[in-house]
Amino acid sequence: MLRLILCALIVLQAPSAQLQQRIRVWIAESVVDDAPGSWPRRLMKERGLLLLHGNQAFLWYLSPEGQVFVLDTDRFGHRMESETNLPAALNAVAQAARQRPELAEMLPARPEGAVDCHHCHGSGVEDQWGSCSCAGLGWTL
């Protein structure tokens, strides 16, 4: 029962007003050119969403208000949808926070009783297969 309660506490936090403004600035300052492969940044500017993270199949974006979106790069039309998979959303923010530490305020604090992730040994860094069971946090319950 305690584990279930602790798991319910693992959520993305809404960004502070200061971080929301910082996200808007990052989006505005992003350089977009005509180079091949620059379409994810172009899409970021067009939609007003911060590009967080990507892998071979998906790209994750963040609205200034804290909503995480996912884009399946293999789907025709590159339709962006709200990310409903909490571990994927957590991982996208956690990976982005390595480059933009201010984003870490959105991540849950490590609760008492959490242990270092056995897969990434507490680093939260993805390996070649993607995120592990800690969703990029470096710890599990």
Which structural traits does this protein have?
single chain, 141 residues, alpha+beta, 2 domains, four-stranded antiparallel beta sheet, two-stranded antiparallel sheet, 6 strands, 29% helix, disordered N terminus
Explain this structure to me?
- The protein is α+β, with helices and mostly antiparallel strands and 141 residues long.
- It folds into 2 domains: 14-107, no CATH class; 108-141, no CATH class.
- Helix content is 29%, strand content 16%.
- It is built from 4 helices and 6 strands, in the order H-H-H-E-E-E-E-H-E-E.
- It has helices at 2-8, 17-29, 39-47, 86-97; strands at 50-54, 58-62, 68-72, 80-82, 115-116, 139-140.
- The chain has a 4-stranded antiparallel sheet, sandwiched between helices. Strands 5-6 form a two-stranded antiparallel ribbon.
- Strand 1 and strand 2 form a beta hairpin.
- The radius of gyration is 16 Å and the shape is globular.
- The model is unreliable at 1-6 (pLDDT under 50).
Shape by Cα distribution: globular
State which percent range the strand residues make up. 15-25%
SSE succession: HHHEEEEHEE
Strand order within the widest beta sheet = 1-2-3-4
Stretches with pLDDT under 50, minimum 5 residues: 1-6
Number of strands: 6
| Total domain modules | 2
Percentage of residues assigned to helices: 25-40%
Helix count equals: 4
Mean pLDDT: 88
| Through-space gap between termini | 12 Å
Structure class:
alpha+beta
Rounded to the nearest angstrom, the radius of gyration is 16 Å
Largest sheet: 4 strands, antiparallel
